[in-house]
Every structure is written in C-alpha cells, then in structure tokens.
## 1
Amino acid sequence: MPSHALVLFFEWVSLLGAGLLGLKLFKSGLYRRYRFFFVYLISLVPYGICLLLLDVNSGLYQKFWTVTTPLFWLLYVLVVFELCGLILKKYKGLYTLGRWAMGAGLAVAVTLSLLTLLPRISPATPQLSKIMGYILATERGVDFSLAIFILLILLFLSRYPVPLSRNVAVHSVVFQSFS
C-alpha cells in the first residue's frame, strides 16, 4: 500500500473516530460539560472531509485552509482552557494563575515563531505564500505553547494532590490524541 494511501486511510479513520466520539458525547449528555471539546469534534468532521475532497493544488483548498485554520487555533485554546477549568474547578486561584500563564505563554510562543520566520520571507515572495508562511509560523507557536502548557499542568498535578475525575482524565488523553 503506498504511503499516501495509508495516510488517507488514517485520516478517514480519525474523522470517523471524531464523529463517533462527538455522537457519544451528545447521546450521553456530556456535551454540556465538555462544550468546546464537543464543538471541536463536531467541526473537525466536515472540515476534514472538505480538506480530503478538495484538490491540494487548487486555490480553493488554499483559501479554505487559510480561513479555517485560525478558527481551529481558537478551538484548541478554548479546549485547553476548558480542560484547565475542569481540572482546577475547586481551585479558583490556581485556575486564574493558569489562565494568565497560558495567555502569556501563547503570546510569547507566537511572537517567537513569527520572528523566526521573518528572515525567510522576502519582498519577492507572493502575497498568498507570505500569508501561508505566517499562518504556519503562528500555528507552530500556538501548538507549541499549548503542548508546553499541558505538560506543565501535568507536572503540577503530579506534584500536588489535585484529584481528577475519570472523565477529565479521559478528556485530556483524547484531546491530546486528536490534536
């Protein structure tokens, strides 16, 4: 089986998994508790199908990706905020500190990612390519800062006895696997 066919297979399986998990959250009523995660899962399915059905070399694919990618960053951040809020629900002071740390870390990571990209973008670069370069750099910063934040939360939780419900633990593992 060629490697691109294997990647397509796993993309379709991932979309099926997201759809089934979203359906399970809806049927069990947990979509009310995990609002942003539910929205992320439900929006991931049509988004992924559109990306898989569009021609990668077309302008429509490029424009669709350019418009929708920042919306998914927002969902990533909201899901991590939701996760942090669920973990630290009983500890309001720690939750506020975590929110500030996440906001500051996100700003620093995105800024550093954009600064590392600036030497590569010349005035002769086509405008759409510049935009895509900035989007990729910003995505790198957002993903990196959220990963570091989640690792720091896990480090914090391993050092201090903050009890986690089973659902919150599963929620964090599933979100890590889908992101």
## 2
Amino acid sequence: MALATRDTAATHRFYTEVMGFELVKVVVGPNPGEHGGWSKHFFFATNPAVSRDEGLMAFWELHDDQISDTYPVNLNTAIGLPAWVNHIAFDAPSIEELYEHRDRWRRHGLSVAEVNHGFCVSIYTSDPNRNMVEFCHTTRPFTDAERERAAQALLDPAPAHDEHRPEITMWKPLVPVA
C-alpha cells in the first residue's frame, strides 16, 4: 500500500513511534511522465520484529508543479465518505500484542476505539492524514455456517442483518493531548 502525505515528518513520527513500524527505505527521484517534478517514496516495515523486508507500507512526498500543494491525503474525505469506510488494517497475531498497540497509541495521546466483532477484536485510531488505522486480532476460527452465510450474503441484494452487535469501548489518551 502506498499513500500520499503532505507532512513527511508527522507521518514518519506516527508510523515509527505510534504504530511501531520501521523506516527501511527512501527512494528519491524524478516523477514518472512528462510533467517533471520529483518525489520521495518512503517505506516502512509493518512488522519489523518478524521481517524488515516484507509487509511494507509506503508514502509519497510529492514535488510537482502540475499537482496542487493542497491535494487531499485523507482517503475518505477526498471522495466524500465517512472516516470508517476506507481504512488501513494490520494484523495483531495475539490479543496481548493488540493491547500493546492500544496502550502505545494511548501513551502517544490518541483516543482508541476498541471493537469486539465476535470473531475478532479491532482497535482504531487516525494517522496524521486523518486516515483511520486498525490493528485486528482474529479470536477464533470461522465456522462452516459462517462460510456458508458469507457465500449466500455476498451477492444477495437484501440480506438479513446479523444479530450480533459489536461491543465498543472508547479508550481515552493516557497523556494530555497537545
């Protein structure tokens, strides 16, 4: 995944300090095409404890006279959708790791929404570009009945609503918000 940012320093701080990722590569060069300009394309390892070479996320810092300095960097605002629709999700292999992420976010002054979906627990906050980010831990295997329901509901134009309602907990920051 690669996204644009207008604030490289804030994006770097968030994805290294708050998300726990590691900056592994920066590529600087001319933009493709005839317009000219240049860009920085910087890459983070999203699970550096496991691999610094896989699971990369990238950002673009653009310098191009053909592109306005006010280009939208929020996935949802740019197309008129609510903040929860398009978001960036990462796996938390254990519930302990999920809670470590939650508590690190709170120590960085962020509010966190924790949602127990019944089959997974997710935590959500927003990055400096106001894109929602998520860590999710799957808590149990999917059943055959769930797989069957998925196949039926996917293309049904008016499927029945699920009976389960997610449990939502809002966590306040552990430090004052600047």
